[in-house]
Amino acid sequence: MNYFFLNWKMYLDRDQSIVLANHVASKDTLPDNTVIFCNDLALSEVKDIIGPERVGTQNVAWVPAGAYTGATSAHMYKQAGATHALVGHSERRHIFNETNIAIRKKMEACVDTALTPVLCIGEKKEQRDDGKWKEVLSEQLILALEDLDMKGQIFYVAYEPVWAIGTGVSCTSDMLQEVVDYIKQVLGTINQNAIILYGGSVSSTNIKDFDNIAGVDGVLIGSAGAKVESLDSMLEVLQ
Ligand code: PGA
After folding, report:
1. Which atom of ligand 1 is nearest to 164's Cα?
2. 23 is known as an active-site residue
3. 3-state secondary structure at position 72
4. Which of 89, 91, 98, 123 is catalytic?
5. Considering only CA atoms, which residue is closest to atom 1 of ligand 1?
6. N or C: which end of the chain has fewer CB within 10 A?
7. What distance in Å separates the CA atoms of residue 208 and residue 162, rounded to the nearest whole number?
8. Each residue's pLDDT tens digit, 168-215
9. Model pTM?
10. Ligand 1 pocket, 204 CB below 6 A?
11. What atom of ligand 1 comes closest to residue 166's alpha carbon?
């Protein structure tokens, strides 16, 4: 497993984040490319515990500074020690009504600041059932990335079907292979190249399956990565 990304969402407060970060840091079997997307208020402590290049933010504002009450810019996250940013996570899209246009601006802000973006994409259950997943994914990819000069920076695309997030129902290997091939095809048409991750109900029982899919380089893990027992079980399986 090349990339082991943990999205702690708003599961853990500052003190709990520090405790779990210390636990993670104590593991000698941690994949090299481990990144923790923790709560903002714990970001700089988690960075001090887990080390540089291993902490990300779950969201960014698209402007560097100004009259944007409640927002935090990519530049500010960078200054606090983040190196990565989730952009367009489905909870941001669907609970906070983030549009593809806003997500594009956030991608631009990350590139301008040299914060490595993890663009999250995924279709809802009804879109999959209606056979519209290709349309949804290509729109999300194209609006976020077409003609965007990445300035040679690497970036990630995390395929996280909305129906798989937090449901215990993950994508099957066949389905995921088809999607990843399609994502690569769309990226090719817009001259972009990304590291592809899978997210959605990843746990110790299925993490190995995702390791065996051509074109999938890692996972973005939510709830199973925010608890000691399930985190340890995944690391054991990966050994
Ligand atoms: P989950 O969440 O692993 O709890 O399904 C994944 C995510 O939202 O990134």
Report:
1. 5
2. no
3. coil
4. 89
5. 222
6. C
7. 21
8. 999 999 999 999 999 999 999 999 999 999 999 999 999 999 988 999
9. 0.97
10. no
11. 5
